[in-house]
Amino acid sequence: MRRSLLWAAAVAMAALAGAAAAQDSGSQNPQARDSLGAGADRQLEQRKTWEPSAPPSDPRDFTGIWEVPNPKIDLKQDNGSDPPFTPGEAKSTQRMIDAERAGNVITDAATQCFPHGVPRLTFAPYPIRFVHQPGKILMLHEVAHNVRIIYMNRKAPPKNTPMSFLGYAVGHWDGATLVVETTHLNNQTRLDMHTSHGPQLKVTERWTKQKTPAGFTDLVDVITVDDPDHFTQPFSVTRRFAFRGDLEATLWTAGVSEYSCEENNRNVPDAAGIVTAK
Length: 278
Known about the structure:
The protein has about 280 residues and is α+β, with helices and mostly antiparallel strands.
């Protein structure tokens, strides 16, 4: 399955990103910068190849391809702490973690080739193309070709909106920040690999362009999860996406690669979402 090859690339990119981020901070700290040495220079050159030209200068124009260089499919808060689980969700999450540690394969909607859910989809280490259209913004994900539609001309979902894997997203601008609120998410997905959610889940994202100290462009997504059935209070995690202008020229005209989840997929779970190790 193509996923395994892209995951390997994602792991490599994560290592690159760690050094690149360190260099960005080191650029304001000569002693730290010197300690990074030639390795940091290589990471700087790598980021240059990702952004051979800058994205649109308009802070409200996200047009183009973006990718998180340091992929993490977890719900750790920015300070490193776990989410504020309810007792029931804490036990459920731990059961999945224990199964994984025992050598079993943990499955979710994504491993069964269903849409990933939100914010699980945003955590995936694959490119995302943003497309602006009248009244809406499209997020075209390489992973499983998932498509999110953000309705900019609505303040709330229409009456009788059905529950679905990707839910219903409405957006508005708060200055230069795109605020997206997603609801009507069914309970067939997980928030990450281990944690479940219920029908009251609301995911609020705040997308903002930022320049790094080295002059590159990041798209920062602050994700707030609110589900009173599974967490004692709302909490937030942050992901930073790098601009991938290089992909426009290297991977066909769409800028993203073909993805076939169904091909050779052998992760068939039991009712609890676990593939038992043989």
